[in-house]
Amino acid sequence: MRTHYCGLVDEALIGQTVTLCGWTDVARNLGGVCFIDLRDHEGIVQVTVDPSNAEVFKVAASLGYEDVLQVVGVVRAREAVNAKIRTGKVEVIATRIEILNKAAPLPFHAHENPGEDIRLKYRYLDLRTPEMQRKQRTRIRLVQALRRWLDARGFQDIETPILTKATPEGARDFLVPARMHPGEFYALPQSPQLFKQILMVAGFDRYYQIARCFRDEALRADRQLEFTQLDMEFAFVRERDVQDTVEGMIRDVFREVMDVELDAQFPRMTWAEAMRRYGSDKPDLRIALELVDVAELVKSSEFAVFAAAAADPDGRVAALRIPGGASLSRKQIDEYAAHAAKHGAKGLAYVKIDEAGEISSPIRKFFAEDAFAALLKHVGAGNGDIVFFGAGAYNKVSDFMGALRLKAGKDFGLVQDGWKPLWVTDFPMFEWDDEAQRYVALHHPFTAPAVDDIADLRANAKTAVSRGYDMVLNGNEIGGGSIRIHRPEMQSAVFELLGIGAEEAEAKFGFLLDALKFGAPPHGGIAFGIDRIAALMAGTESIRDVIPFPKTTTAQCLMTGAPSPIPDEQLAEVHVMVRPKVS
Amino acid sequence: MRTHYCGLVDEALIGQTVTLCGWTDVARNLGGVCFIDLRDHEGIVQVTVDPSNAEVFKVAASLGYEDVLQVVGVVRAREAVNAKIRTGKVEVIATRIEILNKAAPLPFHAHENPGEDIRLKYRYLDLRTPEMQRKQRTRIRLVQALRRWLDARGFQDIETPILTKATPEGARDFLVPARMHPGEFYALPQSPQLFKQILMVAGFDRYYQIARCFRDEALRADRQLEFTQLDMEFAFVRERDVQDTVEGMIRDVFREVMDVELDAQFPRMTWAEAMRRYGSDKPDLRIALELVDVAELVKSSEFAVFAAAAADPDGRVAALRIPGGASLSRKQIDEYAAHAAKHGAKGLAYVKIDEAGEISSPIRKFFAEDAFAALLKHVGAGNGDIVFFGAGAYNKVSDFMGALRLKAGKDFGLVQDGWKPLWVTDFPMFEWDDEAQRYVALHHPFTAPAVDDIADLRANAKTAVSRGYDMVLNGNEIGGGSIRIHRPEMQSAVFELLGIGAEEAEAKFGFLLDALKFGAPPHGGIAFGIDRIAALMAGTESIRDVIPFPKTTTAQCLMTGAPSPIPDEQLAEVHVMVRPKVS
């Protein structure tokens, strides 16, 4: 239907007749001559219609936004060059215009900056904008670059089922009633975790899959019901085999897609160090601020909150110095306190030192003068700074002080440009869940502990470290993985420590325990969040921008209207009914 | 953990120390020397353990099938070369063996030829066999070759949702209760059909996706609940643009994966011709047999069944000559009649001419001698042949005579080796559904009719031809596609002809009708069945062999035990309950 793409018409074609297809980006009648900006996926070219060609002119004069056209014309050098577009040196003098499809008046124009709901309802119109095309293309190029890289290195792209068994990995499963098995259900996979481990047992060596995963969780701005991960697994490996390989992959892919050179070696940091210095297991290293432990300097203070936390072996007293932070008003300081509270703080102490060296601080009175001076010296506080202090349980203090660090980084323009990747390693094996009064797995229950000895693990569960690792980029966990348990006895022991009894383990994970029995190789892997990496590359905060057809935070597709009611007869076929409302 | 792969140890490594990891394929103690066949995904190498190395020997002598090992040893030229394996000229003299994971006694050995249920339950053991590895690799290579081909030509790999709206395309939807919307459901997509059309409206130009599709239908040997298709769509195209492109793709991919050269131009055949000559819309051209129409020659016969069908404008009387078919016994002929009956025949007439020219036929008596001779001459029947005759409604006769043709082809060894692709085109737009008393779409309701004029389509719905096309290979429909409707009025008219009222159309497909209104380009596409093509390439009848984790014909995963009962509390969270059994 066409000889060339609109956006690729250039001077080499001058004098030639071309046939183009595309959308009417805009059509104007200027001084008796019609100009049509004809657009396709490659770009825009100007089509010019002279009134001497009465029939064609009549068509051109009738055009509205987004009418779909086929245009035949001759390429000519343009008098008024438009340097803004690639085809700006030429125009096409139309000899024939056919309207392939007339467009109704549009519900909105992109420049009107409609709300996201309208954009999602008419997703096909939103996706036509150059900005959305650019974002989608970034994702397409990312996935293509990853596949090419993996294929060239012998990774095998293997499919795992979408209709599978409900085997909770922490999040809530999506359920699918089984028509052929009344009262039974399939579940959508939260990840291909178990299948990829099974593939290693089955003798595959290096597996990957760009896999759709499903978690029925509350949606936040950066979560979707379904999301996409690059899922990988390797047989006969230790941590560094996996890490070095995928670090190389990420570096190569950023070079290819973004023309960016990441660190030749990503920094490595234990979980403990990351929590201590940055109050986060996914520190944003673009922000130079660090937390400073001050327990030793405050343990004798009269401020009970500090003294108690400093004396508690599981406690922490940490300080965050913000250079220039003395400019914060009382109201702004309250905002910081509120932000800390949102992240679990019971209170937030501060010391503000104005440019003249004048100190204002609600906690100064609890300190002897020299102790206070020593404290300020220890945290490096000087004129113009503010220092926030948090005290309490170690992880809680780390969390909210880490959150303050991020807020301060943004508020004070302390986020450097560029890309700061790192590895976080040596995660705790277990986390104590106060509510459930039992351990939960920090990664997932298939993660190997650093110790090989089961008795040792049992005896030191609280402090046990796992063989898990995360790749972090600019404060985002973009990849998470681990060496897996490959011995059935260890897997059973870990289930037991997690409060999963032998019977429950057999019912839920019996096939995995079986598989580990019949010759499972040592193996490990990782999964990368494609949506998040694409969003980072595309420079957008929302992963919705890099998902062609995303759902809202209320879990709806505004374009198709999913989810929707289903006739009861159809539900009867799959042996379920809508539950009567309990009033 | 290793320096080399087992299957790649070769003479270049003689004298070197290598570290290998793999499975104990077999371990034998022969005359005081231990030989271990160590296997990984690349193949097998012989590890030899001399008793002089007492410690290592003790480990070696203890080994059982499938124990997972790490072996350090020195590569040496082998005295007794084993020409059957790639590494047969060398062996590895073990200096250290570590058992990485001991394997329990296996539930079966591959050579015992266990039933498919056992193989599916222990899928990880079954997948370890060289035969299953070969089949899986064929699939992996197919998908990789397709992607590489498409990426090189500017096709964009774009994801479409798995949780979407119930929009029946003919088959039954899988439903997923929506937690955040009590009483509402998502559906799993039967194909990305509507989304890919929307992508064309959104300005993408050439889309592809290796997409998972879901149909809750009765499972046959070659069907699965979920299956994989290469889904493609093109903007601004006509039939030949799509067909020529993907024909080239299939040719290139067969060359790359199978080292096979397909026809430089695939034969093309209308649906009418395919039905007439082969009694099938997916003729297996490897079988040279053809149907012959004989209505003209039998319309005056006294055999009422023939005469009536010959006189009916919607009837058909067809003959199938099977060279050498006179060898069929009475019992075998009955089997052919039963096969025809299974495919809709009410009866099956035949004429058998033995080697001596003796004729036996239950219908001879209905014909005058010269008419009978003319009939035999017309169908080319000679000594040693049998000719089957079918009479009745055109499509029914075509169906069962086509089925006989396939059976005869197999029974008489008339299926040629090799690959016979073709295009089938010009399908009927609609099929009359006797039960529902209305038209149904032969492809799907978004397929464009060959006529552009709505009045014309309405007036001639019965004989209307669509712009659909199928790619057929060796009797399998491996790809099906069409030019789509891009004008909203035509889409509404087709919905109407299919008995989908304006209200229903709006509720189910309103977003598509909307999208067509706001500047939809002419577009078309195709979808290829990856499972089927992989099975054909791998030389297996069952697509289960090329799916890593397939379900049984009873829709179960025997390995994980899906589907399974779900606690009622969990169902309550998604607002459904299991329907009480109606007794």
From TrEMBL, chains A, B:
Role summary: Catalyzes the attachment of L-aspartate to tRNA(Asp) in a two-step reaction: L-aspartate is first activated by ATP to form Asp-AMP and then transferred to the acceptor end of tRNA(Asp).
Protein name: Aspartate--tRNA ligase
Keywords associated with the record: Aminoacyl-tRNA synthetase, ATP-binding, Cytoplasm, Ligase, Nucleotide-binding, Protein biosynthesis
Higher taxonomy: Bacteria, Pseudomonadati, Pseudomonadota, Gammaproteobacteria, Lysobacterales
GO biological process: aspartyl-tRNA aminoacylation
This enzyme's EC code(s): 6.1.1.12
PANTHER family in UniProt: ASPARTATE--TRNA LIGASE, MITOCHONDRIAL (PTHR22594:SF5), ASPARTYL/LYSYL-TRNA SYNTHETASE (PTHR22594)
Gene: aspS
PROSITE patterns documented for this protein: AA_TRNA_LIGASE_II
Catalytic activity: tRNA(Asp) + L-aspartate + ATP = L-aspartyl-tRNA(Asp) + AMP + diphosphate
A GO cellular-component term linked to this record: cytoplasm
Binding site for ATP: 215-217, 224, 477, 529-532
Binding-site positions, L-aspartate: 169, 215, 443, 484
EC class (word): ligase
UniProt xrefs under CDD domains: AspRS_core, EcAspRS_like_N
Protein species of origin: Pseudoxanthomonas helianthi
Record-level Gene Ontology MF annotations: aspartate-tRNA ligase activity; ATP binding; nucleic acid binding
